[in-house]
């Protein structure tokens, strides 16, 4: 990067004062400062964008690593389950028995899963009604208002009776 020391900046300022003049120098200095600020913000935005893209690439790599690890674990678990199922099946099957020779065994994949799922029950009629956690008897004992009443109805309710004249 360009290295400006105090002596170089003083020399540039003196040349600018002579060339531009004392009347226009503050406006030119303000404009140059404005452009330098814009350039710094642009460089900072570019750096941030590059950092974000690098982090995004790292996240994609990490995601693929996790997916492969999860896939490997799933396959190993599936293999272990299949080995255990075959061991149980071989231990359960009677050897040399003629009583069970004609029976067919059904593998777990062909079992109908809908036989064990409960039937759909539609929700009760009042399923949208909000149910409070505080019981009604407690609210009545403590004097909590149970019904909403408008302001006009409340005033009419507590207005003293008119005397008929």
Q: How many strands, what sense, and barrel or not for the largest sheet?
A: none
Overall residue-averaged pLDDT value: 81
In N-to-C order, the SSE pattern is: HHHH
Low-confidence stretches: none
Helix segment count?
4
Distance between the termini: 100 Å
Which strand-content bin applies to the residues? under 5%
Indicate the structural class.
mainly alpha
Radius of gyration: 42 Å
What percent of the residues sit in helical stretches (DSSP H or I)?
Answer: 55-70%
The overall strand count is 0
Task: Characterise this structure.
The protein is mainly alpha-helical and 165 residues long. The protein has a domain at 1-92. Helices cover 59% and strands 0% of the residues. The longest helix has 68 residues, at 25-92. The mean pLDDT is 81.
Summarize the topology:
Layout: H1 6-20, H2 25-92, H3 136-142, H4 151-158
GO molecular function: protein transmembrane transporter activity
Pfam families: TatA_B_E (PF02416)
InterPro entries: TatA/B/E, TatB
Task: Report a brief summary of the structure.
With 165 residues, the chain is mostly helical.
